[in-house]
Write a structure and sequence with these properties.
The complex is a heterodimer.
Chain A: H1 3-27, H2 34-47, H3 57-65, H4 67-76, H5 82-114, H6 122-125
Helix pairs in contact in A: 1-2, 1-3
Chain B: H1 2-26, H2 34-48, H3 53-65, H4 67-73, H5 75-80, H6 82-87, H7 89-113, H8 118-125, H9 131-140, H10 145-169, H11 175-197, H12 199-225
Helix pairs in contact in B: 1-2, 1-3, 7-8, 7-11, 8-10, 9-10, 10-11, 11-12
């Protein structure tokens, strides 16, 4: 199958699941965003073998790989928030920086200490690569 | 004219991103992380071209439209790594819950001690989760979505700038542990950084980001209570 065609079909499939997620969140008044419902929906479809992972692998792999790209325009919006940094720059930097550093250390340390070291190593991970 | 500016906006974004990736691959440093590099470059290009954020916003809307399907696509790494995630579910979930609790408690404590205003506290509550989820939660609870997005991005950019070297120094070498921390604390930007370390780390981070998003979505009424 033509790769570009497959990419577009898979993208449309992801868009439909996403829309369905928003629809369900709205219909059931869920306190969870529609795109997360869409993600859970896709996981269920994969787990129940309704969808094969090969059917959406190409586009989803591309989107996940370049996820950072989709955040760039949002970070450009920081250019309109000069006032925020002028008014609260230093306290904000302190709050975000310190909380981030400790969050990282606690999350990573907890996982590393609780899993038996070396069990989840490169050998094991080789079977689970994308 | 508007159409041309929109195309121009999208093109400079794509170009800045790919150049950023290339530079980061050759010279990894906090200041060459693709999003930081691209953001600074694009803002400069816009200023030099005599354009402002309003001109850029149409291009922005088109690119960010795809954050929806991109978030849905995270189900794929989640599915592919479900066995290893289930096997290490207890360490992973503990790390995520402790990590999120610590980062939120510290952020709220400092923000309150420095008497930062309420709208900043609301933004801080969602700072660790991915933008599309953070924006939705904020809108659901009547906060300022722009502020939330700004904090999420700042956290992500700071995370990718500080975390890799910091974890090396602290001897956190296990790819699974690094992936969980990247995804939990620095969401999509952390996941992108993790994917640069190894595909496996990236997949774990993607799963952690998704689960962190779900955790914060579910517990937000409780978190909101403390604001």
């Amino acid at each position: 199958m033509n790769k570009t065609f497959a990419f577009i079909v898979q993208l449309i499939l992801l868009l439909i699941i996403c829309k369905l997620g928003y629809y369900l969140a709205d219909l059931l008044h869920l306190p969870i965003p529609g795109n997360v419902i869409g993600m859970i929906l896709l996981f269920i479809l994969l787990q129940t073998k309704v969808l094969k992972v090969e059917w959406i692998e190409l586009t989803s792999g591309f989107l996940v790989k370049h996820l950072a790209f989709f955040f760039i325009p949002i970070s450009i919006s920081l250019m309109t928030m000069g006032w925020l940094f002028i008014d609260f720059g230093l306290p904000l930097a302190l709050t975000l920086g310190v909380s981030l550093i400790f969050g990282f250390i606690v999350a990573a340390w907890t996982v590393q200490k609780l899993s038996h070291r070396g069990e989840v190593n490169q050998h094991d991970s080789a079977h689970h690569n994308l | 004219m508007t159409v041309l500016i929109t195309i121009y906006s999208i093109l400079i974004t794509i170009l800045a991103y790919f150049i950023g990736r290339k530079i980061y691959a050759k010279h990894p440093s906090p200041f060459t992380t693709p999003v930081f590099f691209s953001t600074v470059t694009i803002i400069l290009i816009l200023l030099i071209s005599g354009l402002d954020f309003d001109d850029y916003s149409q291009g922005k809307d088109i690119i960010t439209y795809f954050l929806g399907p991109a978030t849905v696509a995270l189900a794929v790494p989640l599915y592919k790594n479900r066995k290893i995630i289930v096997k290490y579910a207890i360490p992973a979930i503990s790390g995520m819950i402790f990590g999120l609790m610590v980062t939120l408690i510290i952020a709220f404590t400092i923000a309150k001690a420095l008497s930062l205003p309420q709208f900043i506290l609301q933004g801080l509550a969602v700072k660790s989760i991915t933008v599309p989820i953070a924006v939705e939660i904020t809108e659901l609870y009547g906060g300022n979505a722009n502020i939330s997005a700004a904090f999420v991005i700042l956290t992500g950019v700071l995370g990718t700038m500080i975390a890799p070297k910091m974890m090396d120094k602290l001897n956190i070498t296990m790819p699974f542990a690094r992936g969980i921390a990247y995804g939990t604390i620095a969401h999509g930007l952390g996941t992108a950084q993790a994917a640069q370390e190894s595909e496996f780390t990236g997949a774990v981070a993607g799963a952690a980001m998704a689960i962190a998003g779900i955790l914060i979505s579910c517990f937000f009424p409780l978190i909101n209570h403390f604001l």
